[in-house]
Write a structure and sequence with these properties.
By secondary structure, this protein is mostly helical. Helix content is 72%, strand content 2%. The chain has a domain of 214 residues. It contains 20 helices and 2 strands. Strands 1-2 form a two-stranded antiparallel ribbon. The mean pLDDT is 87.
């Protein structure tokens, strides 16, 4: 039993960030050492929590030993443990890349802000209370804004303001939805809501439906779902590449919220909402997938191409989530894992290219870049992963999705396959411009500063995609068990009934 360790992914980054701000201010070397040590420790804790969730089932940590639903609770189950584990793995690659590329030296407080971001995202994955999900959303919003404007610049500042404004709208909707739910049920504990909502009088059904739609809109904003995706291309494309790579997991917070609430609080069996969420998510996800694929085709810069590819991956994830069955949920979880690693890899490759290129545009050739052979291989691997081509995990993920939607092949298959074709064309266009149409120069490209750690981090993410491919069998079996637990949440609810911590 690891109930007391459940809070560690929240407390550890918070403590490391506080130490950096108070003791290590102005000492970049100490911040780097503490940052790497913190994320390495976080990876070890995340691995232990993943093992505990697999072997022991759901566990609950009661802050202050106050019983649910009166106190704040953190809940560990297979889904939350999985998301914390992938967050920890991605953070290690990001901090290594930031150090290796020198991005962390281009502005103040990169490492403390990254730790606070880890605290917010980790808390969002682990919380068992809807209000504290809002609180952690705000923590990650503040930290992500600081990271987005890291390094300065007018365009980056404008993009950051747009990002904050859009997400503040989502925060306001979140508060309205929570107030409505609390006014009707008297609780915001998610397990408690799962028990109370089916017993509400029929007269309260309309209010619950309104609250469910509001929450869906909040998660749609976080997940960049059409028509609420406008903030993402400009924000992510103008953010530092290493920050955009970290943000690859932030859009998945929206998908996590839909999965958690759609299986626990507002399942399809709930009379008040029925298949309301499914009917909203499916068409929006299909349109998002098409918009992302078309955006990749027409992207003017490599970072914008990566941003639109991320939108397309979120559309795919939401399409498969919308069915809310164990089979489709397992496929969605596999694809989400793949998408986080592939999108982060693409953003890191985009950063490697743009920092070596005379200009960032894809509609005009530029002089050849240093280390073009190695970087072109990385771009090819990232493109293959994002487009869903064999042999990497994107191909397996899309096969799982197509198989899960055999009954709706006429609707789902053409959109997924057609968008994959557009992604292939978009990546081929970008790759040919970047690496085949370079303008010859008399002088050799100027060698950049040594970036061994940056390349190590990028190859590490590709290694994660390779492992996801090689071990697809046992991973999908484990994800199938996790999906079954999500759709049969009795264990999650029972853990919250314990009342007192161990």
């Amino acid at each position: 039993m690891m109930s007391h360790w459940i809070i560690a992914p929240v407390v550890l980054p918070a403590l490391v960030a506080a130490l950096m701000v108070i003791i290590m201010r102005g000492d970049l070397l100490l911040q780097r050492v503490a940052g790497v040590a913190g994320v390495v420790a976080l990876n070890g804790i995340a691995a232990a929590l993943l093992w505990a969730a697999t072997t022991h089932g759901p566990e609950v940590y009661f802050l202050g030993d106050w019983p649910a639903p009166f106190g704040i609770v953190l809940v560990l189950d297979q889904l939350s443990a999985l998301m914390v584990a992938v967050l920890a793995a991605l953070s290690l690659a990001v901090v290594l890349y930031a150090i290796g590329s020198g991005w962390d030296a281009k502005g103040a407080h990169f490492h403390p802000l990254l730790q606070f971001l880890l605290m917010g995202i980790g808390g969002a994955f682990l919380t068992g209370d809807a209000f504290n999900l809002f609180v952690f959303f705000e923590v990650l919003l503040i930290a992500s804004y600081g990271l987005m404007v890291h390094g300065g610049g007018d365009r980056r500042t404008r993009a950051g303001i747009q990002y904050v404004a859009f997400n503040l709208v989502g925060s306001s909707l979140f508060l309205f939805a929570l107030a409505l739910i609390y006014g009707v049920t008297g609780t915001l504990n998610m397990a408690d809501l799962a028990e109370k909502l089916p017993t509400l009088p029929e007269g309260d059904s309309a209010l619950i439906r309104v609250a469910a739609v509001m929450l869906f809109m909040v998660f749609a904003i976080k997940g960049a779902l059409v028509p609420l995706q406008f903030w993402l291309p400009g924000s992510y494309a103008n953010a530092p590449g290493v920050v955009a790579a970290m943000f690859a997991v932030m859009t998945k917070v929206g998908a996590y919220g839909v999965l958690r609430f759609g299986t626990l609080v507002f399942p399809t069996s709930l009379a008040a909402t029925g298949d309301l969420l499914s009917s909203l998510i499916l068409p929006a996800g299909l349109v998002t997938l098409v918009v992302g694929a078309v955006g990749v085709m027409g992207a003017s810069t490599l970072p914008r191409l990566a941003a639109f590819a991320g939108i397309a991956s979120m559309g795919t994830a939401f399409v498969v989530i919308s069915a809310f069955t164990p089979a489709t949920t397992a496929a969605a979880l596999y694809y989400i894992l793949h998408s986080i690693l592939a999108t982060a890899t693409l953003f890191l490759v985009a950063d490697l290219v743009t920092r070596r290129r005379a200009h960032a545009r894809l509609d005009a050739a530029a002089p050849p870049i240093a280390q073009s052979g190695l970087i072109s291989a990385l771009f090819l691997a990232a493109a293959v992963a994002m487009a869903g081509l064999p042999p990497l995990s994107g191909f397996i993920g899309k096969l799982l999705i197509l198989d899960a939607f055999r009954g709706q092949a006429a609707l789902i298959w053409p959109v997924i396959l057609g968008s994959s074709f557009l992604l292939i064309l978009g990546f081929a266009r970008a790759g040919s411009t970047l690496f085949w149409k370079a303008v010859a120069l008399d002088a050799e490209p100027q060698e950049p500063r040594p970036e061994g750690l940056a390349f190590t981090a990028t190859f590490g993410l590709l290694a994660g995609l390779a492992l996801l491919t090689v071990f697809a069998g046992p991973i999908t079996a484990w994800l199938g068990d996790a999906a079954q637990s999500l759709h049969a949440p009795e264990g999650y609810i029972a853990a919250n009934r314990l009342g007192q911590g161990d």
